[in-house]
Amino acid sequence: MLAALSECPYVKVLIHIYIWQHCQDRQTLSLADLPLERGGLEGRKHALANGLKFGPKRKLSEYQRKEAITRRDAGVETLAQIAHSYGVHTSNFAALICN
Q: What contacts 96, CB < 8 A, 6 or more positions away?
């Protein structure tokens, strides 16, 4: 995959810029010297092992979600009012509550 990327002219320019900015000995540095050894699936496994969580962050905590469901079931407030109180858009809020 790295070989295919290195054929793209834009990537070549970016690689040369990286080499120029970050390397002391610019004469002997090559593409093989760049820090790309942990990419793709191996990098993802390493990140998971270190506790990284993938995907977007949750809009509401579990406590807030339960509280919002209780408020909705009480029937005093509309979904839009409850969503506004949490600072979440109504459509996102409806999806969070219904699931």
A: 59, 60, 65, 68, 88
